[in-house]
Amino acid sequence: MLKPILFACSMLITASVSAATATNIASAAEKVSPLMPGLTIPATTLKNKDGHNVDLTKRFAEKTTVLIVYRGGWCPYCSKQLASIQKIEAELAELGAQIIAISPDSPEKLAESKIDSPNYQLLSDDSLTLSQALGLAFYLDDKTATIYRNKLGVNFVSLDGKAKVALPVPAVFVVDKKGLVHFQYANPNYKVRLTENLLLAAVKSVSEQ
Q: CA 44 to CA 209: how far, in whole Å?
């Protein structure tokens, strides 16, 4: 099993107007505690671009999963990362892996994405349920949140009755059929993302076990 090479974080803007419950949101990006290899991802149900429920536990059971957490379609670094991983989709499929990418984008926003593949699915975590379970969520300070909202049109999400912006750290997990994490990468510098070669190596390691 590959060991994590970097423990880190970044931001994910919640463009949803629905209420969210704050159960595990750090006060700053540097204080998040991402789920480590050797631990199992909690059972979670998210929505796809059509608004239909997707049981992650059932999806994990199908094949090895590359689970990507990104900030949203508005983020150019995230869009670049998703496109780069799309380029190696065939290689990942040959290794028996599927790709699931989650963000706080609403199902309606996900429907605008150009990514459309049965082996590469985008899911909505607009209530930050999974982001919190993965230990990636944190609050953006009010000044930065205002700047983001003014520049990007990001909506504030109601968290426990307060208008705050909570973001997840961009991260990549390689998960087996039982939902067990074998590899994790997260980086506080959201401009730095996992390379395709390293991701392929991580998936290959899991597929050979």
A: 25
- Rounded to 5°, angle at Cα 152 from 147 and 154: 85
Q: Distance (Å, rounded) from C-alpha 96 to C-alpha 204?
A: 9
pTM for this predicted structure? 0.85
Return the HEC string of 33-96.
Answer: CCCCCCCECCCCEEECCCCCEEEHHHHHCCCEEEEEECCCCCCHHHHHHHHHHHHCHHHHHHCC
Task: Choose among 177, 172, 166: nearest CA to 34.
Answer: 172
Q: How far apart are CA 200 and CA 160, in angstroms?
A: 39
What does the alpha-carbon distance between residue 15 and residue 35 come to, in Å, rounded to a whole number?
24
Task: Report the C-alpha dihedral over residues 86, 91, 93, 96, rounded to 10 degrees.
Answer: -140
Pair 140, 10: CB distance under 8 Å? no
pLDDT digits (tens, 9 = 90+) for 111-130: 988 887 889 999 999 888 99
If DSSP codes are grouped into helix, strand and coil, which group holds residue 161? coil
**Do 137 and 13 meet the contact criterion of CB atoms below 8 Å apart?**
no
Please say whether the beta carbons of 168 and 188 come within 8 A: no
Within 10 A of 143 (CB to CB), how many other CB atoms are there?
A: 8
Cβ count within 10 A of residue 129: 18
30/28 Cα distance (integer angstroms): 5
